[in-house]
Amino acid sequence: MSYPGSAPPRRPAVVLLASAVLLVMAVAALAYTVADLAVLGRTVDAFRSAAQGTSASPQQIDDVVTLLRASAALSAVVAALSAPVLVGLALGLLAGRSGVRVATWVVCGLGLLAGCCSVAVLIGERAAPLRLGDGERATAELLGLIADAYPSWWIPLNAGLSVGQCLGYLVVATLLTLPAANAWFRRHRPTVPTMPSVPPRFPPTPHQPPPAPTAPPYPPR
């Protein structure tokens, strides 16, 4: 017999699904790290070859190459560090830890922000060369070559991963707010032991002297 509001005996499907999504995102983060570092060398070589036909100086070309390597290294480090964090959150959710659920909401908020920033960067890389004036012609030419230096599948893959990252974090955060998840984490919340109630202590009564003997009602004969 089940009662309303009672915790489910097994892990609810929403918690299992949220944990599965986090694990899939962790695997995708590791795969992205490997792919990012694998295409970096070929991208730099393709960019240098294409930049030789522009009006940019060698110093300007080197500056853009440094920017490419720094952005690729930063993306790889962030993706590599996020993978164990996501795995730890998934295991904590399966264990029913309420603190891990709160931490997951925080990570989901940061992940949504990072995903939106990634999409904005991809759009900015396309729009930046168009907004530069004639005085920055060399910079505009170099920025326009960045997207072409990557493999043809790299930019669509990044855009898809960014959108998928936003959707994944949104799905996880939503699943953890459902009633079944609330009951699961409430069931595993540690209870604080309560001290037994102590009966009230009455103040001691003041000491009273014994009553004085009274005279007999009839005089002795």
Describe this protein's structure.
- The chain is mainly alpha-helical and 221 residues long.
- The protein has one domain.
- The protein is 70% helix and 0% strand.
- The protein contains 6 helices and no strands.
- The chain has helices spanning 13-51, 58-94, 98-131, 137-149, 154-175, 179-187.
- The longest helix is centred in the N-terminal third of the chain and has 39 residues, at 13-51.
- The chain is elongated.
Counting helices, strands and paired strands, the structural category is mainly alpha
Low-confidence stretches: none
* Principal-axis shape: elongated
- Please provide the ordered H/E string of secondary-structure elements: HHHHHH
User: Major sheet, described briefly?
Assistant: none
Alpha carbon gyration radius? 35 Å
- Helix share bin: 55-70%
In percent terms, what proportion of residues is strand? Answer: under 5%
- Mean pLDDT value: 81
Number of helices: 6
Distance between the termini: 88 Å
How many DSSP-defined strands? 0
Number of domains as seen in the coordinates: 1
Strand and helix layout:
Blueprint: H1 13-51, H2 58-94, H3 98-131, H4 137-149, H5 154-175, H6 179-187
Helix pairs in contact: 1-2, 1-4, 1-5, 2-3, 2-4, 3-4, 3-5
Question: Top keywords for this entry?
Answer:
221 residues; mainly alpha
Give the gist of this structure.
The protein is mainly α and 221 residues long. The chain has one domain (13-186).
